[in-house]
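Memo to structure team: turn this sequence into structure tokens by end of day. - J.P.
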Amino acid sequence: MDSDDLGLFGPGSVTWKVHEEPILIVAGLRSLYLQALHPRAMAGVAQNSDYRTDAWGRLVRTATYVGTTVYGTTAEAEAAGERLRRLHARLRATDPVTGERFRIDDPDLLRWVHVAEVESFLDTARRAGLPLSAAEVDGYYTEQRRAAALVGLDPATVPGTAAEVADYYRAVRPQLRMTREAAETALFLTAPPLPWKLGLPARLGLTLGPPRWAYFGVAGTALALLPPWARRMYGGLGLPTTDLSADLTVRALRLALTALPRRWREGPLQQAAKERAARRAGALSDAATPSSATSATQTPATAG
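Reply from structure team:
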């Protein structure tokens, strides 16, 4: 195996440019709020997941999977995808309306989760201030078809441009609604139990300590970043002023996050990928530069 393999994307990709942004922590939460509006997708999570009792563990596992597909080697990304496909293949759920049993790896559900996730990553990064051209936006969606293939989707059936994503949302919106499960999940996402160290103030009777307030701010921003039609489903307003307020907030948060030391902003998968890319670039540079000995043999001797 090539120890310097750059994986599915690499340093020249739009994917690496987008996922360089620490603001994607907000994007991940936005994606979960959006995904919850699909009744079957929500039923699949509620009936097969321990997200209420292990919310942070599930978040870490999800983040690790995304990080592996973006920054892992090709072999690591493919292995992560295979594990996820095997897990999904075993799972079933019951439609809350029709009572029909369905597979978790139904392509329609996988496609919804994929689009909600990648659109959330891209939209949040752009609104936070990451400059991307229209060609780069389409390039990101096209690149992410590789990630869609890992979960078992036919890339040809996955939206690969901004226009195709917009068309997809228009087509799927009649299936979306605010169900009891969606409302309960949204409430849980907005006020989950904090990890022990962060939840210490609550254990001391300080139920709204700084970590809790900080998380409320992040959750509120993620909700405000939803498309207007999704905010209306949650009972909020789809006004342009809400979009403007969300943009200002997420830009300020991005500035704060990017001011942190790089070692705090980059996980081990990202750091390892950058190290491989640097080694690959160095090896290519060395290969393109003749050695001094070779150069000497190719230079005519000077007469004495």
